[in-house]
Amino acid sequence: MATTTLPKSGVLVPLYIYPLTPTTWDPLYDAIAAYPELEFLVIVNPNSGPGALPCPDANYAREVARLNACPNVYPVGYIRIDYCRKPLAAACEEIDRYASWAAEYATTGLGVGGIMVDETPNHFNAAQAEYLRALHRHIKNCSGLLRDRLVVHNPGTPPDPEMADAGSDLLLVCEEPFARWQTNEVQHRLGELPYPRDRCGYMVTEVPNHHLPALVRDLRRRAAYMFVTEIVGDFYERFGPSSWGMLMESLSEQAP
What we know:
Blueprint: E1 10-15, H1 26-34, E2 40-44, H2 58-68, E3 73-80, H3 88-100, H4 105-108, E4 114-118, H5 126-140, E5 150-154, H6 161-164, E6 170-177, H7 178-181, H8 184-192, E7 200-205, H9 212-220, E8 225-228, H10 243-252
Parallel strand pairs: 1-2, 1-8, 2-3, 3-4, 4-5, 5-6, 6-7, 7-8
Helix pairs in contact: 3-5, 9-10
Pfam families: Spherulin4
């Protein structure tokens, strides 16, 4: 009998954990070392953005350099645009602040390879679409950003096609707790607006551990990157005691 092959997906890591000590992010580094075949797209978020000047502080400078030293890690910086209500100039200034980290890249390893834009709209609006396109142009032309200057949008649900085409390389099309993920409403929206899996990321929280392997197998057919955790509340601020390791194991499994 012919066997099927599950597509390979990477680990999406919303890393909203302050690196107070050199061991704070150890669960991440342990996974990076244990699963070199997996790519880790790490969203660095000092303070709902790059943080106040001067930035980064010493703890972030130390840890972002360490992330960049890992060949299977792609760090991106977090900004929040409040569904395009944040003034465009303010959003661009935050991007520039991330870009300034790479001024010392040659000696310290600082820098991010793109930007995750949180709270992007999902319903089409011409002015908001132009805002997102302007943000995309700014990111792609920002010489201080490294690698591909990846642009990630997080509407948390599949956006209308006109918004999906407004300047994103990766769309986070689902940010839901597991109970809601299972509803017809969410699945209908995902089916109604399907996007190629290489453009999609999924974040599903509050997943009972016994459901996690099957969910990951399903998401590997839908998503280039995923984040799955059993944590309820503050799920981006700590590593799941069981689900963190299970996620890596499930992503590494071959198809049965």
